[in-house]
Amino acid sequence: MDDPFGPGFGIASEQSLPPEPCWFPGGPQIDARPPGPGEVHLWRVDLDDPRISSEDQFWWDALNDSDRRRIEAIRHPVTRLSSLVGRGLTRRILAAMLPSAPAPSALTIQTGRFGKPACLDGPPSIEFNLSHSGSLVLLALASQGPLGIDVELLRPYTHRDGLIQRIADPEEATLFRCAPEPQRDLLVTRLWTRKEACVKATGEGMLVSGSLDRLRVPLNEPPHPPRPTRWDGCTTPLESWTLRSLTPRPGYLAALAAPWTVEHLHARLWRFDQTRA
After folding, report:
1. Does 92 map to a domain?
2. How much is the pTM?
3. Of 265, 147, 160, 253, which is closest to residue 200 (Cα–Cα)?
4. CATH no. for residue 64?
5. Looking at per-residue confidence, does 267 or 133 come out higher?
6. Does residue 277 surpass a pLDDT of 50?
């Protein structure tokens, strides 16, 4: 039997996003071509960049009235900023990808029955998913099919054993208990992000997909690309799934999931032009 804590078990093995060109604000400056077949475009915003602020009209101008009301009602400053930037980024990137070049605030983004948003403008039809944690925002986009992204700040868990009991199936729980103590916080985060990304990709959420212990994902990094190995109630063949862990920046762990083969991942880091104070 292969060692479940062999190559790829530690955090150092998580694949880092490659260095990419900077992205600048402004419609003509955004080279936002739609993703091609087998492609995922992944955007990252660092909220601890001092040039990013919840007072910046650049983000507010991308929103419609409904978005504005929702974000204005958020009192916690960090949550308010991440929600503002996440929604503003989504609208600006989607608008730049459409041939008609609509104003970001004019896009029709509708929430599905179980909470997953979708852009009704097009063609092309572009699937997207957003996640934020700590000072990081990630936006994933694809044209081939649905996808899910989840990111978490790596941190010690106060109620780690209780969380494992809630989200792990029996096999995963056994592997967790056998893991070295210093690895366990990483394992919880890896398990959580992979399962959350899978559930977000379906667009059904927890209400339909059921509890996370009905879904089994690899805890280690196998030689072949990982994918769900058990998912009660999933209608998509498990062998068609892509499941990939990423380290978008030190101290964070993310997972990307799609019920189709992701062949190319294009990572982009959003930064403001130096001429913009």
Report:
1. yes
2. 0.86
3. 147
4. 3.90.470.20
5. 133
6. no
